[in-house]
User: Fold this.
Amino acid sequence: MAKRDWSWALLGILALVVRYFAVQNPEGTDEIYSRKFFPGIRNVIDLTLGNLPFPSVYLFVATVFLVLIVFIIRFKGRSGWKERMFYTFKAMANGLGALVFFFLVLWGFNYQRTPIFQQLSLKPKSLNLEQLKSELEITRRLAVQYRSRITQDSVAIDSIMPYSDLERLVRENMHDNLDILGLNFTGKPRTKMFPPQGFMRRMGILGIYFPFTGESYIDPSLHPLEQPFTVAHEMAHSYGVTNEGEANFIAWVICTNSEDPLLRYSGHLRLLQYQIRDYYRMAPSEYKEWVKNLSVGIKNDLNSIREASEVFQPFSIELSRKSNDIFLKSQGVKAGVNSYQQLPMLAFAWRQRMNFFD
Assistant:
């Protein structure tokens, strides 16, 4: 009886022990978990929860409330403060153990796999100013080119296809173009809208992958031009990519190799935003002169994205950033939230590699 009562706590500890050995052997983790075990989980989730017309995280929340109700009923049934304290401690240990166990088994062991950029033999490194300016010019030209295929008007693009069509389009492009990266992921993951509008933004996030339901979600308030790239980013997480920089990189490669001009423009525009920030940080005076000659249409799009982001202000940007940073570092992502900023370096390394093969 005692062993059964502590079963979830013991399973949580067991999962942490397995994680310890997984950290020591990323190649084995990649081969056993990421390439064999996790794809099975991915397909089961996609065939079940993925078919629900609403975010399955609501079921998770309902389950948590149900467990709390059961706990309260059983707590009240205990007599004496010692028995109640012991029951509370046991319940908390089992609850925490269950969360740890399911997090790691359903997705979290992917943190211990061989990094994607290593699998691709990419060696990202910081760009000097001249390299950044060259990369920025390439991205700017491509952004202008693919924006012109969407519209000839310089007015900000503020509407695109229905979200259901966009999600389907991005997923199809993920499936068709992952072989460019030499990756072979399986499944048909969902990235659903997570109402109410602005809720996630107020938490300081635009999108999130939720391992306990195997789905990713984006905020409905996300600007239309941000949606294609963000959906691709979250779907990369759904396929087991844990590093934020690598998820950004995969989203960029998928979008910019699509036959659809909207996806291409969204990918180039996101990279352009990262490069612009780096340019401003490295050479603010040069940046101010450069931005004067930026396409009016792209300027309007960037301003429209900024205005959309300002509608819902985070409760605490610092708290959101710090908590995310701690979580990522606890999972072995040494760069923490700075991993988001790795896209210009990874894009540069990828372009260098593709030029080499060409």
The radius of gyration is 22 Å. Confidence is low (pLDDT under 50) at residues 335-339. The beta strands are 191-193, 207-210, 215-218. The chain has two domains: 2-112, 116-357.
